[in-house]
Design goal:
disordered N terminus, binds alpha-L-fucopyranose, alpha+beta, seven-stranded antiparallel beta sheet
Length: 777
């Protein structure tokens, strides 16, 4: 292992100077991002501390730092509203109009910092910005190689007409939205040399040597349904945070942020092999174009995988969970309200959390679910009461945005006509309890999986007992009441919708597979806790009586209970719809496996072949994970080639129509995932799928290199997490594992698997074991 570490250090050392490449884990550009909506989306660079985030453009004479707070939403319990931009810092610098030399802007994933360097008339200018989790502020610092070079103005603007004001060299904006949410932001300008004064809503500075801007912002959102999610006015908290940060000073803030960031980020290293010096030398936008054309840039692939970890750290820490755009949004009317979509998107955001060794970042998702369950229960009760009050009547349905037919509302009454217990989800949701669009009834069980997985990876028994298990139990109760028995004795979820595809009907495969997973997870949870033996048996029996996956006439895995006949492209090999939700059992579920259920795995493969390799960003990421579970590394890698490419490039190459929303996905120059438009789930899904290609632990054993593509013959990873409480480092050469170290966090037994070779682990919690080459072959 030491040799491997030395290798890494060597690689970093080689990367210094002109040849700095992806091993340094940085995105680099030689021009600013245009300050336009497209420039924001595709070229500006994100920083964040899990609650506060900002986008930086790297413009010289007029820079904008656009900022967000993840809790700033319009809407309320009844209306969806949308996730909102907060405000902007506008920095105007005199004498910066000339064309610069030696321009480079960078986002360094580690230590989590935006940096900018340029030269004007022989003066070297440097900027850096970061978001501190501990201090809860965003910091932007500007320095120069000569004194007195900074003269200009700073303005704070608010996107919701907040009251502007200020004191000394501090500006503030205090506001209230129509939904009652209160906001406050403050920025303080610290200057070295020169002078600074306030002029109305603007700060004017002259001949300063260096500037430090410290920004604090917040809202009154509180994760508490009993208070309608509206808490204390944020101004006192925001100004206390700013006072404290200013008192600490730049150097201390920076050191603290860096240490905190590294403590999470450094847990995992991913080396997929070396790229050529030519590729390393390219800025990221040009590098992405080169990759789109010919691939062959494992360091860019590793950078992209690590970027998913960076983005999760920046958008999911201590507050609401990452939304459709993480927490970065510059629009009052963002696509899909930048909301919490329940039928793939928020789940995909959280796929990497456990295997990529960021388990604590899953907690905002858990907290979100727990705080909203009371309202989601109400939604089920209200729907059931409507049915009771309108016997025999059908509630008006909803026509999906991409369909012409109205789809019906399901019922929430049990066989005896009583309301079912528990909660359920529609497809869209906001953080105040409002939901919209069609019901996604098994969304509750999919959310429950995330609680079970957190327990399975971390071994946190208290979490399992107090949080995961009660939630699993309630969702099981909902489904025990709602499942319908067919004449053949099989159980089906009534009136479900295979996400955004086909009609609303009984027993859609997506629902059936999620429910198998739910009951299986609940049984495991009860077993781990040693509780509820009779209930456990009932859950197991229910799981075994669910209508299961079936193979159709052309060898496909059926998406619906019965094969469709004459319903257009549905259920034909011509169907290339982006959702392939009926393969849930393959990933993230485990009902279908190449080893245990080879016929079903073959059918899943047939379905995937037909659906094709295109997709929206998230669809391609999911397909990557499917192929990884099918142990086809080259095919998974082919999906990565499409995903990590200029949006639509793969579709164009395959001659598919340019306007079809289902296949225009890709990656923008700032490495944000393109649905299109920007949607962050594909970033998180791709990180997860890369890990699934290298290691899997869903099927009992911890399997190394289950789907290694020929593009990555050599490589190494450090710090990946496996279910059962293990952490692994391993390296490979010529496609074969050469070194493995397993650390048991709370795990004991278990097996390591490499192909058909299995090695018993026999570890005690806290122990680690390094396997020699001999043991591995
Ligand atoms: C689901 C998907 C769309 C999009 C939206 C946010 O509705 O079908 O492709 O990702 O979520």
């Amino acid at each position: 292992m030491r040799a491997w570490l030395a290798g890494l250090l060597l690689a970093c050392a080689c990367g210094a100077g002109a040849d700095v490449g992806a091993r340094e884990l940085a995105l680099r550009y030689r021009q600013p991002a245009p300050d336009t909506p497209a420039g924001w989306e595709r070229e500006a660079l994100p920083i964040g501390n899990g609650r506060l985030g900002a986008m930086l453009f790297g413009n010289l004479a007029r820079e904008r730092l656009q900022f967000n707070d993840i809790t700033l939403w319009t809407g309320d319990r009844r209306t969806m509203g949308a996730y909102q931009p907060f405000g902007d810092l506008h920095l105007e610098l005199h004498g910066h109009e000339a064309a610069p030399g030696a321009y480079e802007r960078r986002l360094r994933l580690n230590p989590g910092r935006f940096e900018l360097d340029y030269e004007i008339a022989g003066v070297r200018f440097h900027r850096e910005a970061f978001a501190s989790h501990q201090a809860q502020v965003i910091v932007l610092r500007l320095t120069a190689s000569q004194p007195g070079r900074y003269s200009g103005r700073l303005r704070l603007s608010d996107r919701h007409q907040a009251q502007l004001g200020g004191q000394g060299t501090r500006l503030q904006a205090v506001g209230r939205l129509a939904n009652g949410l209160q906001t406050a932001s403050q920025v303080q300008l610290l200057h070295e040399g020169g002078s600074a004064r306030r002029d109305g809503d603007t700060l004017v500075f002259e001949a300063c040597d260096a500037l430090t801007l410290v920004l604090a912002a917040g809202t009154s959102y509180v994760a508490d349904a009993t208070r309608d999610f509206l808490g204390e006015a944020p101004l006192p908290r925001v100004s206390t945070q700013l006072d404290a940060a200013v008192a600490r000073g730049f150097a201390a803030l920076r050191a603290e942020q860096e240490a905190d960031h590294r403590q999470l980020f450094d847990r995992v290293q991913i080396d997929l092999g070396p790229s050529t010096p030519e590729r390393r030398a390219l800025p990221t936008d040009a590098r992405l174009l080169a990759y789109t054309r010919t691939g062959q840039d494992p360091e860019l692939e590793a950078l992209h995988a690590q970027y998913g970890r960076y983005l999760l750290m920046a958008s999911s820490r201590g507050s609401l969970p990452a939304n459709l755009q993480g927490l970065w949004n510059d629009s009052l009317t963002p696509p899909w309200n930048a909301d919490y979509h329940t039928n793939i998107n928020i789940q995909m955001n959280y796929w990497p959390a456990e295997p990529a060794n960021l388990a604590e970042l899953a907690r905002p998702f858990h907290g979100f679910v727990q705080s909203l369950v009371p309202h989601w229960r109400d939604a089920v009760r209200e729907a059931a009461e409507w049915s009771i009050a309108h016997p025999g009547q059908k509630k008006p349905g909803i026509t999906p945005w991409d369909m012409k037919t109205e789809l019906p509302e399901p019922s929430f009454l049990d066989a005896a006509g009583k309301p079912v217990p528990g909660w359920a989800l529609r497809t869209e949701s906001n953080p105040f309890g409002a939901m919209g669009y069609l019901w996604n009834t098994t969304g509750n069980a999919w959310y429950a999986r995330h609680f079970w997985e957190h327990a399975a990876y971390t071994g946190d028994r208290r979490f399992l007992r107090d949080e995961a298990y009660p939630l699993l139990k309630e969702v099981c109760a909902f489904w025990l009441a709602k499942l319908k028995r067919l004449p053949n004795g099989k159980l089906v979820a009534p009136m479900g919708w295979s996400p955004e595809h086909g009609s609303v009907e009984d027993g859609v495969s997506y629902d059936q597979q999620i429910l198998w997973d739910l009951f299986d997870n609940a049984v495991r949870a009860a077993e781990a806790l040693g509780v509820d033996a009779p209930l456990r048996q009932r859950w197991a029996a229910t799981r075994d009586r669910l209508a299961g996956p079936q193979v159709g006439s052309w060898g496909q895995l059926l998406e619906w209970l019965e094969e469709k006949q004459n319903e257009g492209v549905l259920d034909t090999p011509q169907d290339t719809h982006r959702h392939v939700s009926h393969l849930y059992a393959l990933f993230p579920g485990r009902q279908i496996s190449v080893r245990r259920t080879p016929e079903l795995a073959a059918a899943a493969r047939r379905s995937l072949e037909a659906r094709g390799d295109g997709g929206t960003g998230w669809a391609m990421a999911w397909k990557m994970a499917f192929w990884a579970r099918l142990h086809d590394g080259d095919r998974a890698h082919r999906l990565l080639r499409g995903l990590l490419a200029t949006p639509g490039a793969r579709a164009a190459e395959e001659g598919r129509p340019g306007s079809d929303i289902n296949n225009q996905g890709g990656t923008y120059p700032n490495l944000f995932d393109a649905h299109p438009p920007f949607q962050i789930d594909g970033n998180f899904g791709a990180t997860t799928a890369v890990i699934e290609m290298l290691m899997q632990s869903h099927d009992g054993d911890i399997e190394l290199l289950p789907a290694l593509p020929s593009a990555w013959p050599e490589g190494a990873v450090k710090g990946l997490r496996a279910r059962g409480g293990f952490e692994l480092d391993f390296r490979w050469a010529q496609g074969r594992v050469t070194h493995v170290t397993v650390r048991a966090l709370h795990g004991r037994g278990g097996w390591l698997r490499i192909g058909e070779h299995r090695i018993p682990l026999r570890l005690q919690p806290g122990q680690s074991r390094t396997l020699s080459n001999k043991e591995l072959s």
